[in-house]
TrEMBL record:
Family matches, as NCBIfam families: HAD-SF-IA-v1, PhnX-like
Species the sequence originates in: Maribacter caenipelagi
Chain ranges passing through the membrane: none
Full protein name: Phosphonatase-like hydrolase
Signal sequence interval, chain numbering: none
InterPro entries referenced in this protein's UniProt entry, alphabetically: HAD-like_hydrolase_sf, HAD-like_sf, HAD-SF_hydro_IA, HAD_sf, PGP-like_dom2, PhnX-like
Residues in coiled coil: none
Keywords: Hydrolase
GO biological process: DNA repair
C-alpha cells in the first residue's frame, strides 16, 4: 500500500464527467476558422493543457505554424461557445469518485483539484455538481493561479504550499492525459496515476510511464486505503 499526504486530481475526464464537451468545443472553434481537425487530433495535441496554449499547439501540429493573433481570436470564440455549452450541460462525477475523495479525506489525505481551465469555468463545473471546498476537496488550483501551465509543476507546487505539504514523494497526481502524468513527474510526485475515463487511451497513458494506469479512479482505494 502506498503512503501519501496529498492527492492532486485533474478535473474534466478524471473526476468530472462532462462528455469531452471542452475538446468538442475547442474542435468547433478551430474548425470554424477553416480547419478540419478531428476530435482525436484535438485530444492528442491539446488534452490537459491551458486552453489558449492548446489551440496554438493543435494548429501548429496541423499546419506546421501558428498565427498568434488568430489563436488568440479563436480562444475568445472558444470561451463564448464553451459558456453556452456549459449552460445546457448536465455535469456529474464518475461513479464512486465522490465517495473516494471523501474516504481519502477521512483517512487524513488532503485532496486538491487542478485544471487547465480558468477559475470561472472550473467553478461552474463544481457548482453544477454541488461540490464545495472543504467537503469533497481542500483546494482548487486553476490555470489562472500560475504563470506556467502543464506540464510545468507549478499548479501542484501551489497546491502543496496552500495545504502545507512539503515532501513531494508523499504527493500523488492523477489525470486522464499524458500531460497530467508529465506534470506529476516534473513535480517529483511519489505516485503518478493515469486513468482511462477521459482524453487518452491506456496505451497513450502508458507511454508516459506512470506508476499505475487505472480504468476507474475508485481503484485507488485498494492502493491507498487500509482494507
Amino acid at each position: 500500500m502506498h503512503t501519501i499526504k496529498l492527492a492532486v486530481f485533474d478535473m474534466a475526464g478524471t473526476v468530472v464527467n462532462e462528455d469531452n464537451v471542452v475538446y468538442k468545443t475547442l474542435q468547433r472553434a478551430i474548425n470554424e476558422r477553416g480547419f478540419q481537425v478531428t476530435l482525436d487530433f484535438v485530444l492528442e495535441h491539446g488534452a490537459g493543457k491551458e486552453k489558449h496554449q492548446a489551440i496554438k499547439d493543435i494548429i501548429k501540429a496541423d499546419i506546421g505554424s501558428v498565427d498568434t493573433d488568430m489563436a488568440a481570436s479563436i480562444f475568445e470564440d472558444f470561451k463564448v461557445l464553451l459558456g453556452k455549452a456549459y449552460e445546457q450541460l448536465e455535469v456529474d462525477s464518475y461513479d464512486g469518485v465522490e465517495d473516494l475523495l471523501l474516504a481519502l479525506k477521512e483517512n487524513g489525505i488532503k485532496v486538491a483539484l487542478n485544471t487547465g481551465y480558468d477559475t470561472q469555468t472550473a467553478q461552474l463545473l463544481l457548482d453544477k455538481m454541488d461540490w464545495v471546498e472543504g467537503k469533497q476537496y481542500d483546494v482548487l488550483v486553476t490555470a489562472d493561479d500560475v504563470v506556467l501551465g502543464r506540464p510545468n509543476p507549478d499548479m501542484i507546487v501551489k497546491a502543496m504550499m496552500k495545504l502545507n505539504v512539503q515532501q513531494e514523494e508523499l504527493v500523488l497526481k492523477a489525470g486522464d492525459s499524458i500531460i497530467d502524468i508529465e506534470e506529476g513527474k516534473n513535480a517529483n510526485c511519489g505516485i503518478t496515476i493515469g486513468v482511462t475515463t477521459g482524453a487518452h487511451t491506456r496505451q497513450q497513458l502508458l507511454s508516459a510511464n506512470p506508476t499505475h494506469v487505472l480504468d476507474s479512479l475508485t481503484e485507488l482505494k485498494q492502493l491507498l486505503l487500509p482494507s
